[in-house]
């Protein structure tokens, strides 16, 4: 019989956190570029391609967090009936969801993201490009964002605004940026945050 250790939840959380951050970095380094390649036959403007992928990342986190919130309420109501043990109900709920990620209907979130992108006035209309072509990226981002909500504290992304002042502690400049420009023209990839602190820098393009 496994005995409960006060240090175990912390070790499990730290290990899961490290894996999720590594996954976030891999998506940025590889799967984001794969998605760019899939979009280029439909859209020749590289800026628009990068904007599409950034919006996909933001919408994926939004959809996954909403799905997590709904599932958490359901799981909490179920576990509260006979919860006993040294760990709090909140921790038990997060551990349960982390161990049963199959409860997450990621396909529903992917559909929500694509629908939201189709209605985004800043992106090309559905007649020009079918965002289903990057559904694999969206799915990976949704699963990642969902799992990040099981951490204590959870990880999230920073929401950028075009025209904001460039923050070197939060973002890298893209190679094609104007390095003397103080303002962000558009965002390429979001920064990863934890309790308001930057864990992984995002990427932006700065122009005068």
UniProtKB/TrEMBL annotation:
GO MF annotations in UniProt: lipid binding
A GO CC term attached to the entry: mitochondrial outer membrane
Stored Pfam families: MIEAP (PF16026)
Signal sequence region: none
Record carries keyword Coiled coil: yes
The Mitochondria-eating protein C-terminal domain, residue ranges: 16-206
Record keywords: Coiled coil, Cytoplasm, Lipid-binding, Membrane, Mitochondrion, Mitochondrion outer membrane
Subcellular location field: Cytoplasm; Mitochondrion matrix; Mitochondrion outer membrane
One Gene Ontology term from the biological process aspect of the record: mitophagy by internal vacuole formation
Family: Belongs to the MIEAP family.
Protein name in UniProt: Mitochondria-eating protein
Phylogenetic lineage: Eukaryota, Metazoa, Chordata, Craniata, Vertebrata
Gene: Spata18
